[in-house]
Amino acid sequence: MARVLIMHGWKNHRVPGNWHRHLAAELRKLGHQVFYPQFPSADEPKLEEWQNLLVEELTHLGEAGDGEIVVVGHSLGCLNWIQAAATGVLPFKVDRVLLAAPADPNLLLDLPGLRVNLEDPDVRDAVLDSAHSLTLVGSDEDPWTPNGLQQTYGRPLGLEPVILPGARHLALSDGFSYWQGVIDWVLDPTADLRVR
After folding, report:
1. In what order do the strands lie in the sheet with 3-7?
2. pLDDT of 106-116, one tens digit each?
């Protein structure tokens, strides 16, 4: 049984139809422990508040029994993880992390509390050390990574991203809802994330 933390992004209120909700529901049906919190002030986030909730939820997840610990972040949820890793506030190293459609931090410079420099080798090392396995997935047409996922995240982190052609920001507003690949990936890290 896996223990899973799902972190949504900016302006996400865990609405029906969102792939995060499908993921949480399907994994719970299979008997996995799933934490899917609503991060505070989703429309006007303050990253310090998101950091605090991440640490709290991850700590509870660590106390929730045995089994692999898997973290799935989307958009700002990815930056929340990266900043927590870079600042050393994560309570422990997890088994696997999926960074799905992470937003370019240069597009969020006005976000209170955001301090992510992907070009800093210490940030790269901290992020890579935050999990035994780190997977990067996104689209070739994401407006939140105008320089491309490989250039923005893959190159500085030393990761080869999985690309979902035409999927934009992997958001419900982009027509991205049920995502079988992410459900399969939580169950098996070798699963094909491109399966819709």
Report:
1. 33-35, 3-7, 69-74, 94-100, 131-139, 162-164
2. 999 999 999 99
